[in-house]
Amino acid sequence: MNGNFVYCNPTKLYFGEDSLDFLNEELPKYGKNVVLVYGAGSIKENGIYDKVINILKKNEKNIAEIAGVMPNPTLAKLYEGIKIARNHNADLLLAVGGGSVCDYSKAVSVSVNCTEDPWEKYFVRFDEPDCEIVPVGCVLTMVGTGSEMNAGSVITNEKTKQKIGHVFEDEKIMPRFSILNPRFTMTLPHYQMTAGIYDIFNHICEQYFSDTDDNTSDYISEGLMRSLIHSSKIANKDPQDYEARSNIMWTATWALNTLVACGKSTDWMVHMLGQAVGGYTNATHGMTLAAVSLPYYRHIMPYGLEKFKRFAVNVWGVDASEKEDREIAEEGLAAMESWMKELGLVMNLSELGVTEEMIEGIADVTIVFDTGYKKLDRTEIIDIFRESLI
Ligand code: NZQ
Ligand code: ZN
């Protein structure tokens, strides 16, 4: 394990079918003024809204609401929420929803007491907050991002078509607590469930496909990937299977709560390509990743051959006997491809509304990292987007 690292994760998790009861234990720790943050209305349809409101009222909280946080939350929506939280003198932002609601709440949290423009400060300059942070709590209803236990926040500037994520350094920006009830995720449409599953898988890949040293994080990652593949096949056939859905929920949290990044330089280029697509098309996050992944991994495979070979054998069970390294690695990616198809993921960018004419523009807003096995140049980025088109 060659890398140096600091690990600190203060988010308290409550997991399981009875976990919402623990909101009663958390609420007394904060002041009276709670801002409830949620999306377009799924929580009203499935009854989670009523359950949360009842608990807030029982705890005598003054409630304000930020409703209508959209998937891929926008900067305009962020400005609106900052005003609501300021007017309400918020003591706690309670995010009830998926990664979008949770990310958005963190962005409001670091902006309420800040006089500067949050886009410039956090998503252009990547500054850390120098103002008082409003605590965030989360009741998770969509599984995938890991936002429930990390300090990441992704906001889309709809004017510039930039979708930018900031992973804050200060662990105080991680939710103070997160409530994870797998039953709350059962009403997710199949499309969102599988997009979330692929998001989880790719978070692990992004951290796994870097470096060549022997690292405990890689062994943990392989175990998480195997569990996810196993449970995803069950949930794909029977989305109401609690055991599978609960395993997927727990894997999502560990896939991106900073643990498996320990000692790793990490890659994150699938996310950079996917986010650039998301900024242009507003497509579902996990599906943007699914559409670009295979062309990207096949492109960088020769530069990280040993790790791709290990991935094939340890994650996909490829038989390595009497085969060339490259053949083994290719079989691993082929197994991954057939799993992705089995889940019904979006396998190309055309399905997400991307056209040949958009590719130069999408390449313009693609951020490039050089911590993976191959630093991409512009021609390679364009080639990967072209290969992902069909
Ligand atoms: O808005 P509502 O009506 O609630 O509907 C949502 C939304 O349409 C629906 N949904 C959520 N829970 C549901 C439900 N529908 C029925 N039943 C339920 N129980 O699902 C749709 C998608 O929700 P969203 O929150 O957008 O999904 P997700 O959790 O995938 O979050 C995506 C956002 O997170 C960012 C993405 O870029 C994207 O903006 N990410 C955040 C990360 C982080 N914080 O570390 C990392 C990720 O890589 C990702 O970039
Ligand atoms: Zn992701």
From TrEMBL:
| Family annotation (Pfam families) | ADH_Fe_C (PF25137), Fe-ADH (PF00465)
Q: What is this enzyme's EC?
A: 1.1.1.1
Q: Which InterPro entries match?
A: ADH_Fe/GldA, ADH_Fe_C, BDH-like
Example GO CC term: the record gives: cytosol
A Gene Ontology molecular function term for this protein is:
alcohol dehydrogenase (NADP+) activity
Q: Which Gene3D superfamilies match?
A: 3.40.50.1970, Dehydroquinate synthase-like - alpha domain
Task: Give residue ranges for domain Fe-containing alcohol dehydrogenase-like C-terminal.
Answer: 197-388
Record key words, sorted: Oxidoreductase
Residues in Alcohol dehydrogenase iron-type/glycerol dehydrogenase GldA domain copies: 10-182
* Enzyme class (EC, first level): oxidoreductase
Oxidoreductase: present as a keyword of the record? Answer: yes
State the name under which the record lists this protein: Alcohol dehydrogenase, iron-dependent
Q: Which organism is it from?
A: [Ruminococcus] torques ATCC 27756
